[in-house]
Amino acid sequence: IMFKTEKVLHLKSSRGGKVRVVREHYVRERVSCGCAVCEAGCDRDGKLLSGDVTHYVVPDAVVVRDFLEVLEFRELQGIVFTQTACQAAHHARGRRHYNRLRGLLKDPRHDCVLFANEFQQYSYCPREKGETQEKWHTRCVYHAAVWYYNHLAGLKPVVMITEDQDAVKEYSSLNSGVYVISTREYLETFWPDLQAAQELYTSISQALQERESEATEKEYTEHLPAEVLEAGIKSGRYIQGTLSVNKHRAQHEAFVRFEGSSSKNADLNSDILISGGKLRNRAIHGDLVAVELLPRGEWKGRTTALTEEQGEEKTGEDAQSQPMPSGRVVGILQRNWRDYVVTFPPREELQSQSRNSQKILAVPWDYRIPKIRISTQQAEALQDHRVIVRVDSWDSTSLYPNGHTVRVLGKAGELETEIQTILIENSIHVPAFSEAQLREMPVNSADQPWQMDGAEVSSRRDLRDTHLVFSIDPLGCEDVDDTLSVQTLPGGKRLELGVHIADVTHFVKEGSLTDLEARSRATTYYLADRRYDMLPTVLSADLCSLLGGVDRYAMSVLWELDAESLEVCKVWYGRTLIRSSYQLHYELAQSLLNGEEAEVPELAQLESSEQGQKLAELLQALETLTRMARHLRAQRDKGGALELEGVEVRAQLDEDKNIAALVPKQPLEVHETVAECMIYANHWVARKIQESFPHQALLRHHPPPRQEFFNQLIDCAKTRGFTIDTRSNKTLADSLDHAVDPLDPLVNRLMRVMATQAMSNALYFSTGSCPEEQYYHYGLALDRYTHFTSPIRRYADIIVHRLLMAAIQSEKQEGLHKTLASNKELEELAHQINNKNRAAQHAQKQSVELFQCLYFRDKDPLTDERCVADAVIYTIRANGMLVFIPRYGLKGAVYLKNREGQVVSVRDDGSCEWQVGTLQRYPDRISTSTSRGTHTFHLFDHVTVRISVEPSRCHSDAVHLELINNKPHQAVRSGEAQPAGRGQSELVREVVRREEEASLQAEEQKSRRPKLSREEREFRQSRTPNLYSLLQEISELALLDLSVCHPPTAEPQTCTTSA
Ligand SMILES: [Zn+2]
Fold it and tell me: Residue limits of the RNB domain (predicted)?
C-alpha cells in the first residue's frame, strides 16, 4: 500500500536563483530495515547489518557529506545510512562522492546499509515552513533513527551522530531511546582505540574551518559548467583528455593525452601541450580535463633536454623542439585525486609560512602533484615524517589546492616508511587479511587435516593413477601452482601433454570476501624485499600448492598430439584430481636431460631396479616434453614471436638488506620448456573461452607498436651498420637476431631494450569490446591469448577459470549455473586489473630504485670501488646522454653540461673535468668542445661513471651519475662484475633471478627463521616467491608502460635515473 504526499524542494537554477519544486512523493508502510536481528519480518534480500554489534549508528547528513572518510574505516560497524543523508551528500558533493558512498554500501566488507527513510510512512517528515534545509535533514535523520529503534523493539541501542550542537541538545532531551551525540564524542566514547579515525576527524574539521575564512581574490579562471563542456566537446571546440604532468618539469610542462577521436580534430594526432600553471588551471596530474586549443601563434615546443630534478633549471632555446599544439584547461570533467604522501616544510620555512595563517604548504612525494595547503598544528612535530593527505578542493581563489591529513606513515628515510610511501603512491592497499575473510578459508592443521570431499572426488576426472604428473620450479619453491604430465597413448601414434593448474576457484567462491579482496588487489605485489599476496597463505602455499605426493584439485588441459607431426588432434579441459609424483627443480631437471649423474629425492628410498625403471620413465617424459616445447617455440618463431630485453634487475639482498652482487647462473633450456607449455595452455584456454563467449570472455592482447616509435632503434642500429626491419614482429625478431656485435654483446641487448620500450603494454580486455582483428598478441605471435596458469597470484586467471568452467558446463548442456559478467562489467574489471598491474610494476621498479639508493647511500663515492662502474651510452640528449650500467642493472642520465654552463672535457688519459666550452648534438653522438679540443661520445660507447646518491627531503633519493672517464671501466676484480645472460631472453634471466631468490630465501628460513618472523608475518604472507611472475610478465611483454611515468613523446625514451 502506498500513500501519496507532497515533497517541496528548493533547487538552485543555473542562473543562481532559487526554484521551488513540488513533487509527488509516495510513502509506504513496509520499507526494509536491512538488519540481521530484525523480528518484524522485513525482506532479507541483499546485504544485512550484522547483529554482532553493541549498537547501530545513524550519521546525520552533514556527517555523511563531510566525514565519509571517517565512516569508511572498516572497524566502524552497524552504520545506517539514511536516504536523506545520502541524497544531501550527493547534492552537495557530486557524483564522485556519491559513488564512493555507493561503493561502501555495496561492499560486504563494510558493515553498513541504506535505509530508505523517505519512503517509510512513519519516518518521513515533510519540511516545515521556515525550516532551513540542514535542520530539516537533521530532523529527518533523527526520525529515521527513532523509527529504527522502535522497529527493532529496542533490541539494539541506536546512536545518531551529528555536527549540529543544537540538535544534540534538542533531541537528547526528547528521551526517545535514541542517543544523539557529536561525531567527535562518538569516536572518543565508542572507539577510543581507533586513534586513526579520531585524527582524521580532527584533520578534516580543521580543513573545513579554514576554508570558511578564505580570501576571495581570483588566482585562476573559473571552470566552465559541465553542460557547456559537454556541448563544447561534442561540437569539437574543446578536446577531452587526461592531464599528464612532466615530472622533470612539473611546474611548467604538462600534456593532455587525447582520448577518442572527435571528427573535428581528426588531424590532431599528437598530445596537447599545457604550458605553465595558469593555463593548467588547477588540473592535477591524472584528471580528465577539457582543453581549448590556443591560436597557432602561441604554440610552444616540448623540452628535450635532460633536466635536473626539481625543475628549477633554466632552459636554453636550443632545448626546445618544434612548436606543438598547445592549449589551456577550460574545465575538469573528472577529478582523479588519490591519497598523496607529503612532507611538511622544514622548521625555518614553517615559521615564515605560517605567520599569516594556520596553513602550511606540504610538498608531495610525487613531483607531478602541486604543493597542498593543509591546516595542522602538528607541522612542527611531524617535521621529518611522511604523511598521507587528501585534497578536498581547489577553488579559483586559491593558489594551491586545500587538503587534510589522513595518517602519519613514519620517519622519512626509514625503509618501512619509504616502502609504505611507494605503496600509497601507487594506490596499492594491502591490509592484513581480516578475520572474516580467514574464516572462509578451509582448515588444514595437524589435528584437523584437510580432506577431499566425496562429491568433489566423484565429479572430477581422476588422474592420480593414470598420469605421471610432476612439477619443475626453482629450488626451494613451496607454492607450486602448475604441474605437467606427458605420456604416449596406447598404440603409440599419439602423445598426450597435460598442464594442471591449482584449482583456486574451487576454494574462492565468486562474491565471497576472499574473492572481493583478491579482486580489489588484482595481483600479488612483488617488491624488492617482500611481497604482498593476493590470497591467504592457506591457499597460496598449501591447499592450492600442487606439492609432491599429496592429492590436490586441479584445472587441467590435456592435448592429444600426433606423435610424429605434433599436430593437435583433440583437447580436453576440465576439473581433475592429481597427485604429483616429482617436485623437480630446474637444475635437477636439466641435469637429467643432459644425462648427468643426478639424484632424484623421490627415488632415493627405492631398490635399484625399481629406481632405474622409474628414472627411465621420468627421463622419457622430460625428453618428450622438451621436444614438444621446441616444436611449439619453433611454430611461434615462424609467426614472429619476439625475444626482448628489459633492464630491470631486482635487488637481491644480503642479511643486512644490502644488495648482494649478482651471481649469475647458467640459463637452462628447461626454463623455456616450462614457459612454452604454459603459453600453450593459456593460448588454448583463450580459444576455448572466446569461442564459447564471443562477447564476454577475458583475453589478453598486445597491440602492435606504432611505427614511429621504432625510429630511435632504427637510427641507433644504423650507427653500428645494422638494419632493423620493423614492418612486422617476424621481421623485427629476425633483424634483431642478426644485429649482433661480436665484440660487445651489450649492443644487441640495448637494441632489444629499445625495441621493448617502443612497444605498448599487453592488456586484458573483454572480447565484446574489441574487434576480433585486435585480439592479436604481437609479442607472442598468437591470435588469441589469456592468463590461466597462475590463479594464485593473478585475479585475471581466476576470472578465466570461472569462464572456462562455464564454457564446459554450457557445452554439456547442463545450462549455465550462473549468469556471467556482461561485456561492460568485464571490460571495467579488465581495466581495473590493467591499472593494478601497472601500479604493481611501478611499485616494484620504485622499490628497486629505493634499494639501489640504500645500497649506495652509505658508500663514499670518492673512495669506494663499488661506486665506479662501466656504463654504455644508449640515448643521446641535448645536454647529455642516457647510460646503462650492466653491473647494477641501472639506467640513468649523464650530463655533459652543468648549471654553470661548463661542459665535460677529456684529458689525455681519458679522465674528465668541467671546462668552459660548447656542446654539439647529433642523432648518434654528442661532442663537447673546449680549449683542450673536441671530444665525441657515440651511441654504444663504454664509459666510466661514478655513482652517488642525491638525497631528497621530500621525494625519493635519486642515484646520480657523473662521467669520470671516457674509456670503459676495468673492474679491479674481474669476473664478479660481469652481467650474465647477455642476449638471453629476459624470461630466462628472470627465472634465474627468482631461482636465486627462492634458494636465498630457503636458506634464510633455515638459518634465520626467528629473526625474520615479524616481517614474515607482516609482509610475506606466504613464504617463498612464486615462480610465475617470471613466466608471463616477461615472455609476454607485460612491459612497463613508459608513457605513464614519462611525458608523452614521440620518442618514448626518457631519462629514468632521476625517477
Ligand atoms: Zn526490519
Answer: 460-810
